[in-house]
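User: Some background: our group keeps a shared notebook of sequences we're curious about, and every so often someone picks one and asks for a predicted structure to add to the entry. Today it's my turn. The entry only has the sequence so far, pasted here. Could you supply the structure so I can complete it?
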Amino acid sequence: MDGNSSVTTTRRSLLTAVGAGFGFGSLASRGASARRDESGYLLEQAEECVPIRPLRGRLPVKTFYEYHLPDERVTDENGGVGDGSVTYASAGTRDLQRDRTSILLLYRGPKGTSLVVVHGSVGNDDAGAVTFQLYNLPTDGEWVVKDDHYPDPETGDRAGTNYDEWATDGDDHRVDWTWGTSGTDGGAFRGLGDEFDVIVQPAFNEAAALYGDHYEGTITDWEFLSGSASAAERISLELDEPVEIRTGTCDG
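Assistant: Of course. Here's the predicted structure to add to the notebook entry:
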């Protein structure tokens, strides 16, 4: 898509087409809509809007995510680090993870603002599958963590156990994730810039492309995390509807 008019058209047509009866699962209970909007970032589902704040840190987002892989599977492209306390999982977000839950957040680090996705939790004996279509990602940004996206160390080709599919050309991306027990899945896209307007169209469980092909499991909750890593506000989202994450204010 090219230009602001295309962004606006995509946002409105997508959200209008699928947004009937759509809202935040726990927005009213949190009283978020009455909070003064000074964050400069917002999250929308249909007619509901809530101001959000990035989690901030001094570490680059790759270090914050801390994607653990066996040493021989680490590459610059997947953004992993050598095997540690866990494998095939995000060790850095462990305190934010919840069983059978997918989390979404903005992270503000020394290299700018990133969109972070983590599905599942370390040590949980359930698995899962999720497909995300992401619209309007800046073309000068990049996925600095691709969990999972690892090679066969002997051939250099894609490993036979690497089932995830990453289609990341242009500004509209699609990722099909699936993961086994005790691991997580997800990624980190760095380079959102000073102004952005990203739509995430989810497909969880049976609606995901890889559901049942390799692993069995269920995601029961989707949450957006806002504020600080030590005391993040957890905004409950509907599993079957898109969200829009953008710069701006709800009262504007």
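Suggested note for the entry: The chain has one domain: 3-247. Helices lie at 3-18, 27-30, 61-65.
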